[in-house]
Model the fold of this input.
Amino acid sequence: MAERTKIEKFYSLWIFEQEKLINSYVYDTTGNPNPTRHKFFDYVLLLEKFLRDEIDEIEKINILSGIRGVGKTTLLGQLYFAPKFIPKSQQSDFPKIFEGDYQKLYLDVSRLSAEGIELNEFFNFYQEINDFRLVDMKKKFILLLDEIHYDEKWGLFLKVLFDATKGHKNLLVIATGSSALKLKMNPDLSRRSLSEEIYPLKFNEFCILKGLSPPERNLSDKLVESVLFSKDAGELYNTLNDSSLEITRYFLKLPPGIEEEFFYYGGFPFVLQLKNKRALIYELISGVMDKLITKDILEMKKFSSETISKIKDLLYLIASSDTTNFDKLGKVLKLDYRSVRGIVDALIQSGVLIEVKSYGQKFTQIRKPIKFLFVSPSLRAGILNGIIPPGIKGKFLEDYIALIFMNDFRRKILVYPEIELMYDSSANGADFIIRNEKKKIIIEVGFGDKAEGLTQVKNTAKNIGDFDYGIIISLDNKLEIFDNIVKMPLRFWLMI
Done:
């Protein structure tokens, strides 16, 4: 338990400095506000709903996780200063936010923890000094907690907040933490909170954060609906064709080479100010991985020092290969199967890797190769230090498809049956199969010619039986249809 004098000292300094600290995240070096990500507006809508007294009980506690460097702290800062970051054209949609009739507190829990002060201790002191009690508070209060996982009892703290405010809707909590945060969430808290994840940048967000004009509003949702829910290839082709001219016009306005720039290092907001400094960018991305290994992963699982020293080597091997065979990895790294599997599981849980299983794997005893993709192409490029082995360039596109699946496609499970992302491990099989109880979509990512992509989609169609339609993602900018297969330019996916 921290001494009261220590809590008082921290409180005085924090209240004096918190807005200066937030400013360093939400404004650039010239004093201009940093652009917002799509997630900002999701939470602005939540703020307005809260201030209108329209939130459900479970919406009072919101947990936002994500790997380091994706902008969680910046997002909290922009929410703290929300009226400054809502465009004029949309300000009339959020009258309660602009009225400002609420209290707010931003708290960096890592700094609190460094002083040996528990969240519960600090917040009890905060209530006392500001003369209010959670159980009967009358004024709307927004509590923004950054890096909450630094407090060992964070789950219990949030549960206490929820239970103490059952009689009213005057508290809203938004807390951020590592991607592994959800694993430590106790069952009681999971029933009392909403959990979201923020992923690395998509291409359209990358363009916006670079100061370029945004794509047309709702285009992303329109493309997602087309890819996932067209009744056949003909309908998919027609809906895509309706957006073709609009997408072409948008790309004609973009600077040359921006797609390659994005794939190599555009996944993280912190690199946007580092123009033409690839070596430094890769060094910073490597630093993200180092912190993730030394902080997040070691908090999740206990590994021997020998195993820890080989995590980056394992990441390099995965980054430079197509599929993963645990036995082969173990021989190269001189680790047993259990250790290799344990590291990979930790990397999945921490949000770095996405596991794509072979189609039908759950129904067979045969151990098939597993495909592991990175949650951003920039992570793969950073791990390889920008030196891409022959045959691996296509993996950048696969990483991006996996990101789209996690960030956009899986959101549809709120309305439609849950979907799975799989791949065909047979010879000349397709890169992806998206399926649920009603749908099978075969996807091939193509750097090669049209015939090669068609062959792989058709091979997989034979292996899995009935399917709805196939998609070839091509660098060629021409949209085409071949029976029940649509050749879809990469540009369409970059607009999702």
In short: The chain has two domains: 4-198, 219-494. The chain is about 45% helix and 15% strand. Confidence is low (pLDDT under 50) at residues 362-366.
